Amino acid sequence: MYLTSSSHRERALLVGSCRGSALWDIAESLDELCQLASSAGIQVVETCIQRLERPTAPFYIGKGKAREIAQQCSKKQASSIIFDDELSPAQGRNLEYITNCKVLDRTQLILDIFAQRARTREGCLQIELAQLQYLLPRLTRMWLHLSRQTGGIGTRGPGETQLEADRRRVQERIAKLERELAAVRKNRFIQRGGRLKKNWPVAALIGYTNAGKSSLFNRLTGSEVITEDKLFATLDPTTRQVLLPSRQKVLLIDTVGFIRKLPYTLIDAFKATLEETQLADLLIHVVDLSHPGYYEQMAAVDSTIKELGVGGKQVVLVFNKVDCVRNPELIQTQLRRYPGSVAVSAYTGIGIDAFLQQLEMDLSTWRLKVEYQIPLAESALLAELHRGGCVSSAYYKDEFALVTAYISPALRQRFLSFEVTHQ
Ligand SMILES: Nc1nc2c(ncn2[C@@H]2O[C@H](COP(=O)(O)OP(=O)(O)OP(=O)(O)O)[C@@H](O)[C@H]2O)c(=O)[nH]1
Ligand SMILES: [Mg+2]
After folding, report:
1. Which residue out of 32, 117, 214, 255 has the highest number of ligand 1 atoms within 8 Å of its CB and is therefore the one to mutate?
2. Domain range summary for the chain, segments of one domain joined by +
3. Which of 73, 128, 317, 407 is the most buried (most CB within 10 A)?
4. Are 355 and 344 in contact, with CB atoms under 8 Å apart?
5. Does the domain made of 11-113 have the CATH classification 3.40.50.150?
6. Fold (CATH) for 199-364
């Protein structure tokens, strides 16, 4: 599917390795690597799988296999080789030497996609930071040939090696990026503070990349966020309001997708963007049920959620792309297996109403529908209720306003004495 024949795109050969009882199917992992390469604009000319007892130190794969791959590359005119597993700096260098091609691993490919997609200032800073953090430990051996004593000349300290100077420059850049990021985030925090004062519940769409989060977001909010059959189409979070059938408002956030073997540097760098997820009252986990590896994808999302420290949050499970699921029994089995889950198609709109109802039910523990009787003289209080609560009806009788509103626990405390209790 991904083996297209455009001549000007960078051509690459992909290598996966199979070691003993792999936890998840190597062919599927390689297929995902193909999608990653294609999302990065690379043309995949060949894929190969190497059976390994254990990775061999100098080349990761055997030396014979490395030579074989080099021949394949020259035959297919590939200029890059992409490994599904992380290579040590020395292995990368040795492989480049023997194959005469650029050698990358999955982490570098993901970092490259993110670098291509980053649009906001925060996104660009985060990516550069992640790239440098990936590079820093690699400086140790990568530039060993430069590491000779140079003496105390110029900016370098006495007795400092070239390697130490390079490492120091990278560390300085990292520190500068971290300072800039902190400033950008402070600004965002102030903006977000204003939004959250509104007291609306916040729900974050999370899930594996390409699961259909942005498509669902667009369907629910009437937005036109980019949706693409590419991995990591979304990088920056977007927030919009959604009005539920009961007129309860929710703030919905579309976020960056997760992936198996997500580079640690990226999780770390994107923790702040995903702060939005940390602030959410509820997570909406979108699963592409038409994907053969949906179960492993769900597991990868669950473990990333834990790593991000939001494991304890309430989650609504949404099985998406049901229009493409060939076996209807699978949908029923999943719905029975995960009580409270819903099956939808962001594409056709099937199941969206049921999903909204489920969302409302899950949020009802967070915001309650309450009736109030407020003296008209208390106009400031009435205004506050309109601002902070979601007023579904209001009418006036004698000296009072009779108001029905969906209200957060904090606001409820303030208005406790005005609640109407039905005996
Ligand atoms: N058939 C079908 N395709 C869908 C559905 N929902 C999304 N898609 C397609 O799946 C692809 C990915 O959708 P996105 O909404 O971009 O997915 P995402 O989860 O936001 O992906 P990232 O931002 O890359 O993490 C697009 O080509 C969509 O058109 C669905 O319900 N049915
Ligand atoms: Mg998206």
Report:
1. 214
2. 11-113, 118-194, 199-364, 368-418
3. 407
4. yes
5. no
6. Rossmann fold (3.40.50)
